[in-house]
Design a protein that fits this description.
single chain; globular
């Protein structure tokens, strides 16, 4: 709602899509039903990519108006990688974890940024990676309670290394300068806290990243 009206027309359907996909693996205990929910969204994106008739839905209809076929194919990857959320298997390796963050947080932010006129994909994806890792670290207690094994290395050293890598990837980009990057506001603060106190991750003591006050400040000062 803080974004300009023209940007909201892009961001609302994208974020609504992301909410639907992100929650799909968690609204049922039945893996097959969760798989079917994700496949429904993959099929919808396939229809958008093909440029033909798209199933009528409060999210897919406006989404079809803002996505190019390439955008739809990119977001299909963000749905497919969410299959990790359905099962209890750990990530296979660092490449698998990085793909999960990039194809969820990265694909979403880059799609929004591209539609809204950005062309620096590497920079946007770096910021998105930091925001994705920050959000993932804040979710660790809930993931562990749900029986997941979220981290490849949950030791103090492993958490510090992951948070530092994410902070480094964010670089010095100004998060508050563009509405598509606003989900990353406060991510650096979360990552620095994880580096300073890795125990705060498991204890659920990481600070909230995006708050109304920080959003207003970022918008006014173009700083994140």
């Amino acid at each position: 709602m803080a974004a300009p009206l023209a940007a909201r027309k892009v961001l609302f359907p994208l974020y609504a899509f992301n909410i639907e996909v992100a929650r799909a693996p968690w609204v049922t205990q039945e893996a097959m039903i969760a798989e079917m929910r994700l496949q429904w969204w993959r099929d919808a994106l396939g229809e958008i990519a093909e440029g033909g008739a798209v199933r009528r839905h409060e999210v897919t209809s406006p989404l079809a108006h803002v996505l190019t076929p390439q955008d739809a194919r990119r977001l299909d990857e963000s749905v497919a990688i969410r299959r990790w959320d359905i099962y209890r298997d750990p990530f296979e390796d660092e490449a698998h974890f990085d793909a999960y963050i990039d194809q969820t947080a990265g694909h979403l932010m880059w799609t929004a940024a591209r539609i809204l006129g950005r062309d620096d994909e590497a920079g946007v994806r770096g910021i998105a990676y930091g925001a994705g890792v920050a959000a993932f670290l804040r979710a660790i207690p809930a993931l562990e309670e749900a029986g997941r094994i979220p981290l490849l290395d949950g030791t103090t050293a492993g958490i510090r290394a992951l948070a530092q890598q994410a902070l480094d990837r964010m670089g010095r980009g100004q998060v508050g300068a563009h509405p598509a990057l606003w989900p990353a506001i406060g991510a650096r603060r979360v990552l620095r806290q994880a580096i300073k106190s890795p125990a705060s991750v498991a204890e659920g003591r990481l600070p909230q990243a995006l708050t109304p006050g920080r959003l207003i400040w970022a918008r006014l000062t173009a700083l994140g």
